[in-house]
Design goal:
The chain contains 10 helices and 4 strands. By secondary structure, the chain is α+β, with helices and mostly antiparallel strands. The protein has 4 domains: 118 residues, no CATH class; 34 residues, no CATH class; 37 residues; 64 residues, no CATH class. The longest helix has 30 residues. Bound molecules: zinc ion.
Length: 307
């Protein structure tokens, strides 16, 4: 065998050994959750932000680690290269299929899962960040007069085309035939509101989201006024205070680690009393901060409020 091929073989072996080691450590971290104390709100966030894995690479490692926690033989199969992170990732919800996927490609495993997995054969929902060309802006560029020239004719105007890139999220999912009829009806209704203009699935999706948020907003307002009038609940936070805290903290978890890094998660963000209500803390802007659920629970555990 050629020397380069031999060298590659050795490198691949080392890579496999490292991958297995990574999966074992990710699994350990998944159980022990040390990343919470270092300003990360989830294992995924730590792998992406802290370790610079791509979104997909982080997901594959986390799914493989979770499978390993259910089926410890995963690492031996990885070491023997009989399964890959991709194929493992497909059977997280069907761990008993592990023995059947040995030596199979991702496509073959997908088919197996669709045939045998049974429970849910929908196309897995995916959200992928993409960069798209938004528009081509036409920018006029005025050419300068030649040096010392007292030109009578105005300088020519050159139109320069500028490409503007935009970051978007691409969503893939599937729905049943029955739902598709409903969607068409909704599309017609919305099309009337849009005065006959075409309605995309994106329009429908955003319209639905706006309605959910509006409903939640009016519910909170109603609850707020009811509480303000009635109870003297010290945990009660007025909408005005909530708004100020939300604005001050930018809607993000403010958990700060000793090295100064801030969690910044927007996932399940909650209002936290810095001095707990149980210890006489009040619901003022100064005594409130935003924490994600994981960090809120961590602080409560540290304060001995929950186990
Ligand atoms: Zn957090």
């Amino acid at each position: 065998m050629h020397e380069v091929m031999k060298e590659l073989r050795r490198a691949v072996y080392k890579e496999t050994v490292s991958t297995v080691e990574v999966i074992e450590l990710v699994a350990k971290l998944e159980k022990e959750k040390h990343f919470l104390r270092y300003g990360f709100s989830s294992l995924h966030q730590y792998l992406v932000r802290g370790l610079k894995y791509s979104d997909g690479a982080a997901n594959r490692r986390i799914r493989a680690a979770r499978l390993y926690l259910k089926k410890p033989e995963v690492c031996e199969l990885l070491r023997r290269r009989e399964v890959s992170l991709c194929t493992l990732s497909e059977i997280l919800d069907e761990p008993e299929m592990l023995s059947e996927i040995k030596g199979k490609s991702k496509r073959e495993v997908e088919e197996l899962v669709a045939l045998k997995g049974g429970k849910d054969t929908r196309i897995r929902e995916r959200v992928v960040p993409v960069v798209v060309k938004r528009a081509i802006e036409q920018k006029p560029v005025f050419s300068t007069l030649p040096a010392g020239g007292q030109s009578v004719t105005p300088p020519p105007v050159v139109i320069r085309q500028e490409v503007v890139l935009e970051e978007r999220l691409k969503v893939t999912f599937s729905y049943s035939k029955q739902k598709s009829e409903k969607i068409e009806r909704a599309r017609e209704i919305l099309s009337r509101k849009y005065s006959g203009k075409g309605v995309s699935i994106e329009d429908l999706f955003l319209e639905g989201i706006n309605q959910i948020l509006a409903a939640e907003g009016s519910k909170k307002e109603r609850m707020g006024t009811r509480k303000e009038r009635g109870s003297k609940n010290r945990r009660y936070i007025s909408p005005k205070v909530k708004k100020e805290v939300l604005e001050r903290d930018g809607g993000c978890c403010t958990y700060r680690n000793t090295d100064g890094s801030v969690c910044g998660s927007r996932w399940s963000v909650e209002f936290d009393h810095i001095t707990p209500v149980a210890l006489g803390g009040v619901s003022s802007v100064e005594n409130l901060r935003l924490l994600c659920r994981n960090h809120n629970q961590l602080m409560a555990r540290d304060a001995g409020l929950i186990r």
